[in-house]
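Reply to dn_fold:

You asked what the input looked like. This is it:
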Amino acid sequence: MSRDHRHRIGPSDEEALKRLKGYEGREREAAIGSARWDAEVERALEVGLPAAESVQDRTISTFSRTELPYFAGINTFMRFPFLEDVREVGNYDVAILGAPFDMGTTYRSGTRFGPQAIRRISGLYSTYNYEFGVDLREQMTACDLGDVFVIPANLEKSFDQISRAVSHVVSQGTFPVILGGDHSIGYPDVRGIAEHIEGNVGIIHLDRHVDIQEKDMDERMHTTPWFHATNIPNAPPKNLVQCGIGGWQVPRAGVEVARERQTTIMTIGEVEAMGVDKAAEMALEVAWDGAEAVYLSFDIDSVDSGFVPGTGWPEPGGYLPREALKFLHLVAEEGLCGMEVVEVSPPYDHSDQTALLAARAVADVLATIVSEGHIGDGGGTP
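and this is what came back:
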């Protein structure tokens, strides 16, 4: 760049150049520290034994006990520690729990393997993100509780188990992230949270389908969670907003219920026309209207099926991955009381791209609520 050209750059351009050079991200990164990583390495050397003498890097242990190498180790989400005693969940800011349930599926089953796949592919990620300037290891505490003991072939008992699990986590002051499982779990997830909220709970739901009819084939299926969730006294239908709806799989029975209950439906065409920023702003306005907390439900099939083939109900024309991630980020900035990601069906995706996007969605939401100060302690103290 010539000297003359530099003189023609305006203030806004200078700010853009600073962002391109990464000044802001570098400043945030420099302030994070590495105390928890250092403690993790020290513990790995203690319980996993120091490496063979030929290994020059003496932070490496004999048995893998840190996030490295990414292809090894026990599959917990992003290598968060597995918490065997769930009574201790209150010692953590965030808890990951799986709901490996697909008995509410009406066509392509396989989402019972979703939590397993999401955890496995999340091993690709470290806990640091340059764009957010966040290191989840250093700035919050998280654990993986493993999976809820669901009851195959019995929806209602499984719903009770899921609600009990989520309720336990929330009762201890910990932020729950539920890995599904089909979308029928949205109802027991909200039920487990709502009982601990003093006031109303709003729901922001990214999907291609409205999922709000009362029954499907005489049962409470993955097409019905929001009918039953909005029957919960403090989760009123006026605070439900469904974003990205469209295509040829939106049942009229659900549309009729949404109209009767005066919920908000935002089609993918409307999101595209107004832009993700405005769409997220409107979603937040509806969900937070008179509410004390907002719950986030991310159905992976809200994304165009070309990017997420591993789902039970694929539909072309949805969000691009980058649009979905931006939407989730904007919603999470205002704070959440919990999050679910559902409908990952690994048998239909040999490349794990669907599970990878699910893992990325969770990581981005956690990074957002940490960077906005909703959870975490800033890091630096093991």
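The beta strands are 94-99, 128-129, 134-135, 142-147, 175-180, 200-206, 240-245, 264-267, 291-299, 338-342.
Hope that clears it up.
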